[in-house]
Amino acid sequence: MIGRTTDRTTFLRQRTLEPDEAKLVSDVEAYGCHIIQVREERGFPGWSYTVGLSDILECPELIVIGLKENVAQSLLNECARRLQSGVRLEQDKRQANFSRMWSASLEALKNDG
């Protein structure tokens, strides 16, 4: 995956960043996105999401819910790789060939707020 420096990452680099924030900015610049994982807790499934795709590729960020962390990271990295190669992931259409084990379907999240 290929990232780049953007106005946003340049702006952030001018600030004093915590180590995890600096890693996020570095990943976006190097790879095009950073993946954040939230562990399952008190009966709620874990979830993982990208940061940086909207800045680098001008597309929505991606989120997966309920997958094991390594599977979620693999899926998100593969989606990001495909997006960076020019593939456009279509809403409500099965995305095949992510692996021999599974496929994916994309749905827009609605903001009810």
List the helices and strands and how they pair.
Elements (H helix, E strand, L loop, with lengths): L6 H7 L5 H13 L2 E5 L8 E5 L1 H4 L6 E3 L3 H16 L9 E2 L8 E2 L8
Antiparallel strand pairs: 1-2, 2-3, 4-5
Question: Mind explaining what this structure looks like?
Answer:
With 113 residues, the chain is α+β, with helices and mostly antiparallel strands. It has a domain at 34-104. Helices cover 35% and strands 15% of the residues. The chain is built from 4 helices and 5 strands. The protein has helices at residues 7-13, 19-31, 53-56, 69-84, and strands at residues 34-38, 47-51, 63-65, 94-95, 104-105. The strands form 2 sheets. A 3-stranded antiparallel sheet has the order 1-2-3. A two-stranded antiparallel sheet has the order 4-5. The longest helix is centred in the last third of the chain and has 16 residues, at 69-84. The termini are far apart. The relative contact order is 0.14.
Helix content: 25-40%
* Spatial strand arrangement across the major sheet: 1-2-3
**Total number of beta strands:** 5
Shape: globular
Give the strand content: 15-25%
The overall pLDDT, averaged over residues, is 85
How far is it from the N-terminal to the C-terminal residue, by CA?
34 Å
Count of DSSP-assigned helices:
4
How would you sum up the major sheet?
Answer: 3 strands, antiparallel
Radius of gyration: 15 Å
SSE order in H/E notation? HHEEHEHEE
Parts with pLDDT < 50 across at least 5 consecutive residues: none
> What structural class do helix, strand and pairing data support?
alpha+beta
